[in-house]
Amino acid sequence: MDSEKIKEKVAEYYTRKVQEWGPTPQGVDWNSRESHEIRIEQLLKICDRSGFFSLNDLGCGYGALYGYMIERKYDFEYHGYDLSEAMIEKAHTSYKNADNCHFTQSDVLEEADYTTACGLFNVKMDVDFREWERYVLEVLEKIDRASRRGFAFNILTRYSDSEYKKDHLYYADSCFYFDYCKKKFSKHVALLHDYPLYEFSILVRKDI
What we know:
- Helix content is 37%, strand content 22%.
- The protein contains 6 helices and 7 strands, in the order H-H-E-H-E-H-E-E-H-E-H-E-E.
- The chain has helices at 3-21, 33-43, 64-71, 85-94, 129-146, 174-184, and strands spanning 53-58, 76-82, 101-105, 112-117, 147-156, 188-192, 199-205.
- The longest helix has 19 residues, at 3-21.
């Protein structure tokens, strides 16, 4: 299956979710706001808060990351991207008066200091494991090219308890992605696998 077909399936999946649940964690296929914020905390460790920065949020959903950052008074400019038109409409509605954010229905990224991808790679649907892995690596290449200072992403871990695993989800080898990022993108890579969720986060720094 080629990337365009995969992207169509992804857009359809999340459009159904947000139409069913609205702009909520469940609308982007997360269990709760609390777990979603734990994920966001890990990914935002990539950002240097000592000054202003720009951020791409690939797979932004309804803009939860932007809301989190505003609440915590980050000094930043935000650009959210999502393949689902319905998601982008919800984001525009939620943050229509914000002057430091933009939302675009696309996966073509403008250059920014940082890029985050939260949950972007978790739902493979009926796509073959190896085809999905190739798709993930393609997207990481794109993220790398658009990120001046670094990027961060998370994926469900293969160390999840087998009785809770679901066939339509992608459970990845954290060591594979750490090794890939270390060899391909930067010498400065962190693997975070010590927080209380069945996933891992990888931070790729370019500006050390």
